[in-house]
Fold these 3 entries.
Entry 1:
Amino acid sequence: MSSFLFSLILVFVQVIMRYIFNYSLSWSEELARYIFVWQSWLGFCLALKHGKHIRIDVVSHRLSPRLKIVFETIAWSLSLIMVLFLVINGFKLLRLLASRGQVSPALRMPMSYAYAAVPVSCLLGSVLIVVYIISLFTSRKG
């Protein structure tokens, strides 16, 4: 919530500076963009944690409890594979960006900081998915 408020104030200040003072801050739009990217990817983790992710449950509602566990395990395992793919390739991209020394145009910040949102959030998301898969089996036994 605080990052959203900060980015809102940042964009508001940029608009005021541009239209009232006829002076544009070169770095504010770039910073707001990177904050938005991080908010989006961390929002993915928050949605996973609270079970608010997008899903189609037409099939799973019609299955028996036992088959539902199998179906959920397969679905979450496929999600885990995809998220781990993003983690592995995201860290490869970070290494590439770090080796090239690419920096952002206005902030002169290493671009790997902005791109780190994907592998970091997906790594956290993979932990949440593994915990959920484990809970599918432990909650049914207890």
Entry 2:
Amino acid sequence: MRGSAAEGDVPRPDGGSIPDTEAPTSALGEVDRALLDALAHDGRLGLATLAQRLDVSAATVRRRLGRLTRSGTVAFRCDVAPDLTGLPVAVTFRGRAPIRDVNALHRTLATLHGCRLVAAVTGSSTVLATYWLPGIGTVQQHETAMSARLATLEITDRIIGARTVKRMGHLLDGAGRRVGTRPVRSW
């Protein structure tokens, strides 16, 4: 019915509403933003707790969260302090390869042990890959393994991270454990 929105629906400029399940992801409402903020602080919160904090029903939280995850606006991941994984050294390799090889190259890089990120980038280096490794001595071994599997990949730079102080809005201590939050807000 025009002019009467159900809880969680997104209002249209003409006074009607778009059902929550059909709302475009670019139309983040107040509830969506509050939901994302709450999850940025603690992604382990349950539906009932989120509903209470946002002053909406658990069904609204479930519906909104479902829409946000299905659309790719939000994704969940679990991170572990690098020291606990036995992989305390972060190294990012920059490189380049012929464009014809990029898709296969990314798939192969993503399968290597300790992979955290593989991305296509612009500039003189077109490939970026970050790995967590057991020690500084394994950086060259890892690069050698990459080059052996990917003949057209030319490594142009290596960046060793001494310490990560923030990851995805979470402030980290020297051991990589969360000590605070500075949420990433994309809106």
Entry 3:
Amino acid sequence: MAYEIPVTQARAELADLINRVVYGGERVVVTRHGKPLVALVSAADLERLDALDAPAEGQVEEQIVSSVSGIREAGSARREQQRFGIAAEHRGPEVS
């Protein structure tokens, strides 16, 4: 659970808040009008968050290859109608 503090109070206590984060292992959420605005976290916590955001090396390429290999060539409309047993065909309004 993070410690919440209003932004006006956080300004006055910034040095103390930094010490709480660094030495006490706390996470501090600075609020404005009761809504979370920013969070103070340790550098170690930030590294862990960054590691979660960054995909593993090579993972992006693997995702692209698997996506592309999953795409099959689209068949003609007539072949798709036969494949799915579609008897009707939509035709747009005729232009005179």
